[in-house]
Amino acid sequence: MRILTALLVVAVVGVGGWQLLPSEEKKNKTITVGTTDAATSLDPAAAYDAGSWTLLNNVFQSLLTFQPGGTSPVPDAASSCDFVDGGLRTYRCEVRDDITFPSGRTMTAEDVKFSFDRVKKINSDVGPAPLLSTLDSVEAVGSTVTFHLSSPDATFPQKVATGAGAIVDHTRYAKDALRTGTQVDGTGPYRLKEYAKDKRAVLEPNGSYKGAVTDTGRPIELRYYGTPAELDRAWQDRQIDVASRTLPPKVLAGLNPSDPGHRVSVSSSPEVRNLYLNTRASSSLHDVRVRRAVAMLINREHLAGAVYDNTVDALYSLVPTGITGHTTAFFDAYPEQDVKRARALLTEAGVSIPMRFTYGYGKRGVAAEEAAELKRQLEESGLFKVDVKGYEWADFQKRWVGGKLDAYAVGWVADYPDPDTFGSGLVGTGSVMNTGYSSKTVDNLIRATQEHSDRGRVVADFRTLQAEIATDVPLIPLWQRKDYVISSEDVGGGQYLTDGSGAFRLWKLDWI
């Protein structure tokens, strides 16, 4: 009887397990994913925003990639990669010999060299070239690619694993010009089957893919929505199976993970939002005393509650919580709103009160509400007059990189899971946020942290760096995001969709 009972239990478990597997019909059914992060470019040399990388990380391949939850990159288009000198200035990879482009051509080391050289040569204002600032030259011999760095950079492998390392077919892309149109020739887990700008991207699994991903996933359709409210309506009307980045804060705050009608994944995220201040002589915020006065008047806690319903956490330093070296430098320097002290700084700087400056934002999410709250906080003091204006995203990017705004708020998704992405990426000379800020002390600290492959040894330097930024104020940290992914009850894998590595793994989504 015990044997029969055991066999019966096994049979029941077997049937239950079989029922959890997707049917053949479902395997080929498209999973629709809604987001407000539309792609701005299909060319890796001009793509350096969350929406573009969400798409391109799935259709292009880099030599290395990050596994879910991993902090060290693993081979993808490469069979192996490693530093070949003790000085962290020569990095060498062997390219796999079984990867083919959509044209049928086999990927070679020459394609890899071409791709890195191309990003640096084009040097797009809105592209990822700043990530390759330490790359001096690339050499391709046979199947071997050797990267020669201008200075030691322990974080270079992580940069190779980002969208800056996307490998293109050198016979299909111009070496000195961006590609137009909607055709993409990548070797990633997906092929781009159809694309309509700001509307949708249809992806089909790439049956020829070879690399670190073991299952290239289900067919995916990314649908782009102009506002969080539109994304929410699409979710409520069941027009999409997954909603990610970004539903309205009130909707996120009201989510119930125990609701049987959907699945909710909430996780910590190294994504941050900063207020960037133009430090150029032509800007109203050129004087550091003026920038410090602004920093003294920002109430992050109220911003997080009033605008974001506490679905974000107040942030007080350049490096966010959960990343090596995090501090609370801005809280230490400006522990409370201090109108009297801010007024004294403006008087010392010799500016007229109220002092006027321009504040720009990209028309995404609740950026308009955020701008209104920051304007209220600053003007309530009687010390500032803030001219606020929102711009369509592409126009907004051009304005901030052109130095046409005094202040602008921009979200930053970590490129890789290391504090360097916040240091060299945001405050190093020539950084992508283009505030005009340049500090020899900060640059030296950044270079010093790049000299250690043991990242535990960089903590002290990053603490010093964050204190310098709180003193110089080229930016003011505002908040740190929590990642929310909502899916219907018959779609799993949402918890693996995104993490702190900068990857967006559409291939992890599956029917249940």
Descriptive notes:
The structure is a single chain. With 512 residues, this protein is α+β, with helices and mostly antiparallel strands. Helices cover 30% and strands 22% of the residues. The protein contains 16 helices and 19 strands. The chain has helices at 2-20, 24-27, 50-59, 109-122, 156-160, 228-236, 249-253, 288-297, 300-306, 329-333, 339-349, 367-380, 393-401, 420-426, 440-449, 459-472; strands spanning 31-35, 64-65, 74-75, 78-83, 90-95, 135-141, 144-149, 190-196, 200-205, 220-224, 242-244, 262-277, 312-314, 355-362, 384-391, 407-412, 475-488, 491-492, 510-511. Strands 1, 8, 9, 10, 11, 12, 13, 14, 15, 16 and 17 form an 11-stranded mixed β-sheet that branches. Strands 4-5-7-6 form a 4-stranded antiparallel β-sheet, with helices on one face. Strand 14 (355-362), helix 12 (367-380) and strand 15 form a beta-alpha-beta unit. It is globular and about 65 Å long.
Binned, the helix content reads 25-40%
Number of helices: 16
Mean pLDDT: 92
Largest sheet: 11 strands, mixed
Measure the end-to-end span: 34 Å
Unreliable stretches: 1-20
The number of distinct β-strands equals 19
| Global geometry | globular
Kindly provide the radius of gyration, computed on alpha-carbon positions and rounded to a whole number of angstroms: 24 Å
Beta percentage is 15-25%
- Strand pairing plus helix content: what structural class? alpha+beta
